[in-house]
Structures are given as C-alpha cells and as structure tokens.
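yo, Arrestin C-terminal-like domain-containing protein is done. seq:
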Amino acid sequence: MAVHCQFSVNEPRCKVFTPGSAICGTMRYEFDEETIVRKISVSLEGFGRLQVNEGVGYGYNEDSVSDCNLEDIFYSEDIIDFSAEGTPYLTGQYGTTFNFWLPENIPPSLHYCTNDLNLGIFCEITYFLRIRFHVGGFAEFQKTFEKEIKVAPSVMPRLPTLPMVYGEKKTFFHLCKRNNFIYLKACVKNSIINPGQRVQICYEVENQSSTTVQAIKIKLVEMYMFSLNENDTIKFYVDVEGTDSKTAMIKSGDIKEYSLEIDIEPSLHSVDYSKIVSRNYAVIIIISLPIPYKNMMLEIPIQIGKCSRSQLDPHFYCVSNNGRESPPSYGESTT
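structure:
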C-alpha cells in the first residue's frame, strides 16, 4: 500500500516569496488501495540551524568540539482531514487547495558556511511546505512530502533614511602647536539601501596636524553575529570584495573633500529577525598615518534590504537588534 502526492505552488516569477505575501496552491494525492487515514495536514514551517565546530579552520579534526543552536521561526498548519478512528479512502485520486500567509517579521532563506576562522560555522534558515498523511490500520505509519520555499530578505529599520553625518577627531601632542589634530567628517545620503543600488558618501578630511596623512582607504564590510545561546556569541567582520578604494596623501594644513559611490551587489542583504544570526553592513573609512601613530577609523553603519514597513518614517530609528548587543567596532575586531 502506498500514498502518492504532488502539489503545485503559485510562485512569483522570481521563485522567491516576500515576507507578508500569500503562499497558495493545489495538492493532489492518490491511494493505490483502500486506506484508513487518521489525519491529513499541510503546513508551512520555518526553522534555523547554527552549528559551530572548534578547530576546523586549521585542518579538520574529527574530535573537534561542536556546538549547535536551533530556532523555530514559523509554523502554520491546515488540517485537511482528521478522525481518531480513521477515515476510509478508496483507491483513486483526491485533491484540495491550501493557502498560507508569511509573517512580515521573519528572516530570509539563508545558507552560510565558512572555515576562514579557527572555527567551522554552518548556518541555515529554511522554509518548507509539508504534507503529512497519518495512515491507520494494521500497518500504521506517517508519510511526509515536502517542498522548499525561498523567502526574500526584509530589514527591520534601525537607521534613518535622512542624510546622516558622522565624525572622528584625532588630537596629537605637540609642544609648539596648540591645535594639532586631524578631523574626519562623513555624510551618508541614505543608511538603508536596496540591493543593486549605491551607497553615496561625501567626506572631508581636515589635516591640522604636523604629520602627513599617507592615504585614505574605504571599504564595505559585513558584520556577522552568531548566537549559540544568550552568553555565547560569535562576532566578526568580513570585507566585501570589489569595494575597496584609496586616495592620495594629504599634507599638513590641507583640507580635502571627496565623494564616493559604492555599488551594492544584488546578492547582498542584511539578515534580521533571527535569534541565531544577524548580518549587517558598514562603510569603513581608514586614515593611514605614519608610524608610530595609530590609524584613524570611522565606521558608518548601513542596512541593505527592503524595509518590512510599507511606509517608513524617515525619522524612525530603532535601537533594537533582536535583543542582542551590537557587534564590536571594526577597529576592535581587527586589533
């Protein structure tokens, strides 16, 4: 005796569902002989999995310590048929429809794996449509059919959409010069960027010190946070390839103004609404100074993705980061 099932989903052209959208379709199932069925259900499920293996980065070790954290993101079930005694189904084909709504505040589908650190990190967020048949009678069993659903990213707006100004000042000790400093001021036009767009930044460097600025380096970085539990969080930065730029030196007494645009690849996006992982972005401006001085650094946070709010107040600013602390600054993580 066997159960056969196939179902079709009304997918968008891009094959990816946006948070807040409907997932609907039809399912057809067939029994090759008369069957007693206790329950038929169709469900939409989302869950996350994080696994961290210590010592993997410098060669795999079978005895490496492995930690894991699981997250139940979303579950919705529709009961097609239920009977404690069981419902007899004759040989033949049957069909029905299903309809689910995705919440707006859910993380996107994700598959991340790295061995670049002294850790092996594997993290995934997946969504499935599952159809379950609980068959009764003499040989009671459960049969499950599933189809993976891809969910697009949306961001929890934590930054304003109005232009923001950031600044950093470094003061030097000099016996004969009272005002001996370098001042860096930067303005980002919009801190929430859609994938495929550009980050627009204008910045000014005022060198009132007795030293020469060797160069100004700018790059886009990814900021990751992985949470095994409330007290065990892994935080690190990853440079985004192809976003580096560099300017010439700035002599003592000079004031230079620059403008810059960084293309955001369509594949880049922030990850919000998850308890096990978050990913955000920042533009890092580094003023290179000669030895023995420490380089100046300015971090400009941005979010990449479409906001989950249909109408976003440009003054809105949410300091929440899913209940977790923010990652360390780029300078702290690289020292």
